[in-house]
Amino acid sequence: xxxxxxxxxxxxxxxxxxxxxxxxxxxxxxxxxxxxxxxxxxxxxxxxxxxxxxxxxxxxxxxxxxxxxxxxxxxxxxxxxxxxxxxxxxxxxxxxxxxxxxxxxxxxxxxxx
Amino acid sequence: xxxxxxxxxxxxxxxxxxxxxxxxxxxxxxxxxxxxxxxxxxxxxxxxxxxxxxxxxxxxxxxxxxxxxxxxxxxxxxxxxxxxxxxxxxxxxxxxxxxxxxxxxxxxxxxxxx
Lengths: 113, 114
Description:
The structure holds two protein chains of two kinds.
Chain A: E1 4-7, E2 10-13, E3 18-25, E4 31-37, E5 44-50, E6 53-57, E7 64-70, E8 73-79, E9 87-94, E10 103-104, E11 108-112
Parallel strand pairs in A: 2-11
Antiparallel strand pairs in A: 1-3, 3-8, 4-5, 4-9, 5-6, 7-8, 9-10, 9-11
Chain B: E1 3-6, E2 10-14, E3 19-21, E4 23-26, E5 32-38, E6 44-50, E7 56-58, E8 64-68, E9 73-78, E10 87-95, E11 101-104, E12 108-113
Parallel strand pairs in B: 2-12
Antiparallel strand pairs in B: 1-4, 3-9, 5-6, 5-10, 7-8, 8-9, 10-11, 10-12
């Protein structure tokens, strides 16, 4: 375990479903991130939260809706997804004021059918 | 703007031989640089980081990397490959701008032959 826990590990959903991904960290970090990792493509930053405030939305479609109720928890709400949204979704956390890098969770493997 | 280029998409070595994974970066100021490893169906694990201290950085599992400013490189090496090293490796440069942002390379898949 890295200290960043993501649930569920695997998710299969239909295009009309609504589901949520959850990320939790107890490392005392104050920034949290969602990344998308698709086959044959580099990691894509989706959202950044700094002290619970969203500071970055990297042109992500509105069918992805993030929520950060506190510095330890991050959610990604999903609705009316497309098959091309199938990917590994990675959560990460970090300090904002030191270059220690990120700590990543193990990811949620999402398949949209 | 920062960017990072991993020069090989796939590297294959025999067990017990040296590993070299190449990375070049572009940064308008002194960067922080990282190497991450990702095993199949796993998240990313930090191998090592350079943050303007010693230019030769030692990481976990016997890996090390050398920061060469004149060559804008941060290559990852290991003297002797082990089967468990087979994974995807990412070179990363840090942009510190509010919440820090990491810029990832495309990744290098390392295959270890018995």
